[in-house]
Design goal:
The chain is of the alpha/beta class. Helix content is 54%, strand content 13%. The chain contains 8 helices and 5 strands. The strands form 2 sheets. The protein has a 3-stranded parallel beta sheet. α3 crosses α6 and α5 (66-72) packs across α6.
Amino acid sequence: MIVVSNASPLVGLASIRQLDLLKQLYGKVHIPEAVWREVVINGAGQPGSTEVENAGWIKRHQVANTRLVQSLLQYLDEGESEAIALAVELRAELLIIDERLGRDTARHFGLNFTGLIGLRETA
Protein backbone atom coordinates (compact mmCIF):
# COMPACT_ATOMS: atom_id res chain seq x y z
CA MET A 1 0.00 0.00 0.00
CA ILE A 2 1.37 3.42 -0.95
CA VAL A 3 0.75 5.96 1.82
CA VAL A 4 1.73 9.65 1.78
CA SER A 5 1.66 11.85 4.87
CA ASN A 6 1.54 15.53 5.59
CA ALA A 7 3.46 16.97 8.57
CA SER A 8 0.77 17.40 11.23
CA PRO A 9 -0.08 13.68 11.60
CA LEU A 10 3.64 12.86 11.93
CA VAL A 11 4.14 15.50 14.60
CA GLY A 12 0.91 14.57 16.37
CA LEU A 13 1.82 10.90 16.58
CA ALA A 14 5.39 11.65 17.62
CA SER A 15 4.19 13.95 20.40
CA ILE A 16 2.30 11.02 21.96
CA ARG A 17 5.12 8.59 21.19
CA GLN A 18 3.06 6.71 18.62
CA LEU A 19 4.88 7.46 15.35
CA ASP A 20 5.66 3.75 14.93
CA LEU A 21 1.92 3.18 14.57
CA LEU A 22 2.34 4.24 10.93
CA LYS A 23 5.04 1.61 10.42
CA GLN A 24 2.84 -1.03 12.04
CA LEU A 25 -0.15 -0.13 9.87
CA TYR A 26 1.54 0.57 6.52
CA GLY A 27 5.16 -0.59 6.66
CA LYS A 28 6.40 2.47 4.75
CA VAL A 29 5.22 6.07 4.53
CA HIS A 30 6.20 8.54 1.80
CA ILE A 31 6.66 12.26 2.42
CA PRO A 32 7.63 15.13 0.14
CA GLU A 33 10.69 17.28 0.78
CA ALA A 34 8.53 20.15 2.07
CA VAL A 35 7.15 17.93 4.85
CA TRP A 36 10.69 16.75 5.68
CA ARG A 37 11.85 20.38 5.98
CA GLU A 38 8.81 21.36 8.05
CA VAL A 39 9.23 18.52 10.54
CA VAL A 40 12.98 17.85 10.64
CA ILE A 41 14.64 21.16 9.76
CA ASN A 42 12.18 23.90 10.81
CA GLY A 43 10.88 21.76 13.68
CA ALA A 44 14.31 20.87 15.07
CA GLY A 45 13.98 20.15 18.77
CA GLN A 46 10.20 19.73 18.52
CA PRO A 47 8.23 16.46 18.68
CA GLY A 48 8.74 14.43 15.53
CA SER A 49 11.97 16.02 14.35
CA THR A 50 14.41 13.35 15.49
CA GLU A 51 11.90 10.52 15.13
CA VAL A 52 11.14 11.33 11.48
CA GLU A 53 14.79 11.95 10.67
CA ASN A 54 15.78 8.53 12.04
CA ALA A 55 12.83 6.51 10.72
CA GLY A 56 14.22 4.46 7.83
CA TRP A 57 10.67 3.47 6.88
CA ILE A 58 9.77 7.09 6.07
CA LYS A 59 10.82 7.77 2.47
CA ARG A 60 11.50 11.31 1.19
CA HIS A 61 10.61 12.34 -2.34
CA GLN A 62 11.16 15.35 -4.54
CA VAL A 63 7.82 16.19 -6.15
CA ALA A 64 8.11 16.23 -9.94
CA ASN A 65 4.92 18.14 -10.78
CA THR A 66 5.99 21.60 -9.66
CA ARG A 67 3.18 23.23 -11.64
CA LEU A 68 0.60 21.39 -9.57
CA VAL A 69 2.40 22.41 -6.38
CA GLN A 70 2.45 26.05 -7.49
CA SER A 71 -1.28 25.92 -8.21
CA LEU A 72 -2.06 24.39 -4.83
CA LEU A 73 0.06 27.00 -3.03
CA GLN A 74 -2.67 29.53 -3.74
CA TYR A 75 -4.79 27.80 -1.09
CA LEU A 76 -2.55 25.49 0.93
CA ASP A 77 0.83 25.64 2.61
CA GLU A 78 3.90 24.09 1.01
CA GLY A 79 3.74 20.81 2.94
CA GLU A 80 0.08 20.20 2.15
CA SER A 81 0.58 21.17 -1.50
CA GLU A 82 3.52 18.83 -1.96
CA ALA A 83 1.83 16.00 -0.03
CA ILE A 84 -1.19 16.14 -2.33
CA ALA A 85 0.98 16.39 -5.44
CA LEU A 86 3.11 13.45 -4.27
CA ALA A 87 0.00 11.37 -3.54
CA VAL A 88 -1.21 12.06 -7.08
CA GLU A 89 2.21 11.23 -8.59
CA LEU A 90 2.64 7.98 -6.66
CA ARG A 91 -1.01 7.05 -7.12
CA ALA A 92 -1.15 6.66 -3.37
CA GLU A 93 -3.87 4.56 -1.90
CA LEU A 94 -4.02 6.82 1.16
CA LEU A 95 -3.09 10.38 2.06
CA ILE A 96 -2.77 11.20 5.76
CA ILE A 97 -3.74 14.84 6.22
CA ASP A 98 -5.60 16.67 8.97
CA GLU A 99 -6.30 20.15 7.63
CA ARG A 100 -9.83 20.64 6.32
CA LEU A 101 -8.91 22.59 3.19
CA GLY A 102 -6.21 20.01 2.39
CA ARG A 103 -8.75 17.22 2.76
CA ASP A 104 -11.22 19.06 0.53
CA THR A 105 -8.50 19.46 -2.08
CA ALA A 106 -7.52 15.79 -1.80
CA ARG A 107 -11.17 14.88 -2.37
CA HIS A 108 -11.15 17.02 -5.53
CA PHE A 109 -8.26 14.90 -6.86
CA GLY A 110 -10.05 11.67 -6.00
CA LEU A 111 -7.58 10.76 -3.25
CA ASN A 112 -8.50 8.56 -0.32
CA PHE A 113 -7.49 10.26 2.90
CA THR A 114 -7.61 10.01 6.64
CA GLY A 115 -6.39 12.10 9.53
CA LEU A 116 -4.84 11.49 12.89
CA ILE A 117 -8.16 10.56 14.47
CA GLY A 118 -8.88 8.07 11.69
CA LEU A 119 -5.50 6.44 12.25
CA ARG A 120 -6.17 6.00 15.95
CA GLU A 121 -9.51 4.36 15.12
CA THR A 122 -7.80 1.99 12.66
CA ALA A 123 -5.21 0.82 15.17
